[in-house]
Write a structure and sequence with these properties.
The chain is mainly α. Helix content is 56%, strand content 7%. The chain has 18 helices and 17 strands. The strands form seven sheets. Strands 3-4-5 form a three-stranded antiparallel beta sheet. Strands 8-11-12 form a three-stranded antiparallel beta sheet, with no helix packed on it. Strands 13-14-15 form a three-stranded antiparallel beta sheet, with no helix packed on it. A hairpin with a 2-residue loop joins strand 11 (492-494) and strand 12. Helix 8 (330-344) packs across helix 10 (384-394). The N and C termini lie far apart (173 Å).
Length: 681
Amino acid sequence: QGCLCGVLESLLFERGGGRMRTAKAIGKKGSGLCSRTSIILYILILVLVYIVATMSLAASSAKKRIAILEKEKLELAAAHDEDHQAHSEDHKALSVEQKKREADKVFLASQSEQLAADLEVKTKALKTAKSAQDKLKEQLDITKQKAEELKKLAKEAVEKAKADEKAKTEKKEAADAKPADKKEDKEGGRRDKEPSGTKIKGALPEGDKPLLMGSDKKGEADLERQAAVKAMFMHSWDGYKKFAWGTDELMPRTRAGHNWLNQGGSIVDSMSTLAVMGEVEEFKKNAEWVKAQLHFEAKGDVSFFETTIRVLGGLLSAYEFSCDLYACDEGLLTKAKDIGDRLLKAFNTPSGLPYASINLASGHGSTPGWTGGAAILAEVATVQMEFSALSKHTGDPHYEEVAMKCFRTLEKNHPANGLMPLYVSVQTGAYTSNHVSLGAMGDSAFEYLIKTWILRGRREQWLKDMYDKSVDGIQKHLVKTAQIDGHVYVAENKGGSPIHKMDHLACFVAGMFVIGAPYSNDPTGHLTSATGVAETCFQMYHKQASGLSPENVEFGGGGMRAGAVYNIQRPEAVEAWFYMWRATKDPIWRDHGWAMYQAFEKHCKVESGGYVGVRDVRVAPPPLDDTQQTFWLAETLKYLYLLFSDDDTIPLDQYVFNTEAHPLKIWSSVGDGKGGGGKVA
C-alpha cells in the first residue's frame, strides 16, 4: 500500500513545481493519504487525468485531422473548380460545335436547295438548248435547201449575165457599124431620154443592167403593211413640220427643233423618201425651201462626211427624182454644186484624202485630235458616189477626179488580206492603226467599193479587185459563228486578234454581200453569209424585252448579249432584210421588218408628232430619248417601205443607194466618159 501510494504520488506529482507543493502539503497530514479511500481517489484522479489527456490527444489529433480535411476540402474544391471550369469550357466548346453543326446543317440545306434549283435551271437550259439545237438543225436543213436554190439562181444569173454581155457586145458592134446620127448630149451626159415601157427617165437598157440576185422572181407589194409604214413616216414628217421646220431634227417630246449641221437636215434627207412614197407636193415644198432658205455662207465648221452623204447626196438624188416627177429642178442642182464646191476644199491635203472637218466659209480643214491627227476610213472612202454624181450632172470631171483619187491612194496601201484599218494619215495615205471594223468608222468604206463600181457602169476593174480582196478577207477573218446559239456575226479585229462584238451598223454587210454576190467567184457562199448575218440582226431585236435592237451586241460563253443598250432608230437591219427580200422573196424577211415596225410603233410614237429612240432596249416599256434622227426619215422608213413594195419601186438594176439611202441612177457601162461620169479614174 505504501509502495502504491508512493507510485501514485510519483505519477501524479512528479511534474511541475506547483503540483509537487500540493502533494507535499497533503503528505504533511500524515499517512492517511494512503488509505483505501485515498487510493480510490487517486485512481479516480488518475483515470480523470488519463481521460483528459486522452481527450486532449484526441482533440489535438482531431484538429490535425480537421486541418488535413480542410486542406483536402480546399484541394477538392480547387479541383472541383478546375473540373467545373473545364466542364464549362467543354460545354461552351460543345455549344459552339453544336451551333457550327446547326449552321453547317442550314448551309448544307441551302446548298442542297441551290443545287436542286441549279439542276432544274440547267435541266431547263439543256432542254431549251436541245430544242434550239433541233430548231437550228431544222433551220440548217432549210438553209441548205435554200442554198441549193440560190446556187441554182446564181448559176442562172451568171449564164444570164454572159448572154447579156454577148447581146450587149453584138448590139455595140451593130451600132458601130452604123453611121452615128445622134446629136451630142448637151446636158453633160444626163441620159434623160425615157425608154418605152418605163417611168424612169434615163433608165438603162436591158442589156446594160447590172446583175441581181433573184431578178427572175417578181415580188408583189404588201399594200396593207406598206400603207402602215407610210403612215408612220407621215406622222414623223408632220411632227417635224409642226415643231421643227427649218432645223436639222425634231425633238418630239420637247416639241422643238435641234441643230447640229445647221443645214435643214431633215428637209434635205427626207426628199428622196417623199419621192419614193409618191408625195410629190411635199417634195416640191421641200425643194422650194432648199432653193430659198438653204445657204452655206455662214455655216462654219461642219463634218465633211456627214454633209457629203446627207446634204450633197440628198440634193443630187432629189434632183434626179425631180426629173422623173415633174421636170429637172435646176435650182436643186445649183445648191448641190454650191455645197460641192465648198466641200471640195477638204481634199487639199498632201495625200489627197479629205480632212474630217471643213469650214464652209473659209475652206479651212482639220482632223480630230483624238485620232492622232489621222482621218477616219469611212469618212475618206464614203464620198465617191456623191462627187461622181455631181460630175455627171454638171459635166465637170474635177469633182469625181479628186474623190476617186482617194480610192487610188487607198489602193496603193491596200492590205494583203483586204481589211482596211480605221485610221489613215492625210499626210501620207498610210494606215496608222491595226483596228479593223465593219461597224462605226469603217463600215461604209467597204460598201462603197462595190457600190461605186456599179454606179459608175462597172468600168473600173481595179475598184472591183479591191472589193473582191476586201470581201474575201471579211469572209475569212471577220464572219464568225457563235458556238452557243449558232448566230452568224461580223466581228472586229485588232492586231490580228478577233473582238467578238458586232455593231448594228455592221448589219449593212448582208446587203453588201447581196449586191456583190452575182459578180463574185462564190455567189452562194456570199448569199449564205448574208442570210446568216441578216438573221442575226433580227435576233438583236427579238431577244430584247422592248423588241428593239441595242447599238451593239457581244458574243461570248453565254451567247449573244446587249453591249451598248440604246437604240437611235438605225436603218442597217431593215436595209439587210430589204436586200434579202429582193434576192430571195422569202417572206421571213418581211415578217422581220414588220416585227421591227410594231416595236417602234408600240414604244416610240409621240402622239403630238414624231418618233423617238430609247435609252435601254432591255426593258419594256423602255426609257425614251428625245430625238427623231434625220436618217429615220431618209433610211429606216424608206427601206421599211421598200421592203413591202414591189420590185419596180426603185429597181436595183437602175439605182444604187448611197450610205444615207439616197438612190442614185446607175450609169451606162458603155458610156463615152464625158459628163456622165467624167474622166475615168
